[in-house]
Specification:
Layout (H helix, E strand, L loop, with lengths): L10 E5 L3 H12 L3 E5 L17 E2 L1 H4 L5 H19 L7 E2 L3 E5 L4 H17 L7 E4 H7 L9 E5 L3 E3 L1 H14 L3 E3 L19 E4 L13 E11 L9 E4 L5 E6 L3 E9 L9 H14 L7 E12 L6 E6 L2 E5 L5 H18 L3 H6 L2 E4 L6
Parallel strand pairs: 1-2, 1-10, 2-9, 5-12, 10-17, 16-18
Antiparallel strand pairs: 3-8, 4-8, 5-7, 6-7, 11-14, 11-15, 12-13, 13-14, 16-17
Helix pairs in contact: 1-6, 1-8, 3-8
Length: 371
Amino acid sequence: MNFHSSSKLSTSVVLGAGLMGRLLAVQLARAGHAVELFDAGGPQAEGAAARVAAAMLAPLAESAVTETSVVQMGRHALLRWPALIAQLDQPVFFQQEGSLILWHRQDAAEAARFSHQMVATRRSIPALPAAQALDAAGVARLEPALGSRFTQGLYLPGEGQLDNHQLLTALLHQLEALQVGLHWHSPRDPGDFDPGQRGQPDWLFDCRGLGARGQWAALRGVRGEVIRVHAPEVTLSRPTRLIHPRYPLYIAPKPDHLFVIGATEIESDDLSPASVRSTLELLSAAYSVHTGFAEARIVEIATQCRPALPDNLPAIRHLGPRMLQINGLYRHGFLIAPALLDVVMELVTTGASPLASALALRIEHAEGVTP
């Protein structure tokens, strides 16, 4: 494949067609690059971590388990996702109705710890909206379907979510409309290219997640499991999280009474089906939130491994001249992908990224690569 034979446009190769790869390929094409996208799987992103996700955009809620830099990237994402979705020809469900945090009486101590973390996060990032304490009437006002099942809760205003399946499909349609070269079932690695040389692309971007472990040994897999159910008897207006010391459940409502239920986070790259134990725990916890889930129909039980670096933070790495790796999105893919996208586009355009500095996003160089 000769990348310079027919055009004087900048040419780019993107490896990996999950969330990050699709977003980047679309933005590069919109910026005038001739783009070729290679993926080991097919167009439906069956092997991508992004397909097994709730796609919640909850920076304040996630501050209980992550660093301030991720929270800042999440704030950036809440501003950017509407614009990114508006660029797409196909509709994508997006809402910003906040998050509801609930707990059963026996988990009040864990809830207090969570609440203290919310206060600490807002102290370090004052621009974040404050968490609002709710009594039973406040919970029922926000989610009438929950009635009087919970006597206390927290409302985190401004947080959002989108539909990951719709987004991946819409991005695929956009790639086709932008005439990106799509190479399915075609695994490649950075060693197959030599950017800048005759007949080679100008840029290479490695967005393969765990597929990049051969070039980035620090990557590890963190297993996640989600259940997608159709529950006509349940109506929830926003993502709802249940505080629990062992399995902090989330329920993310999607269009047409579809709900994504998840919680599990296992230090393993095992891709076998979900266990009976974790499935029972997820469904039992969901039933404890709303009894209508008893009559729900299970649409999908899915497992996938998220790519994580040792500190569970993302990084952009120079693998060589005009060769960038974008990885380590961990459990925060949809929350932080727009920030990573915008940083990469700054690096491509100007060679530097003020945004990376503002968000404390790590940019590093592979061993032996001169800064």
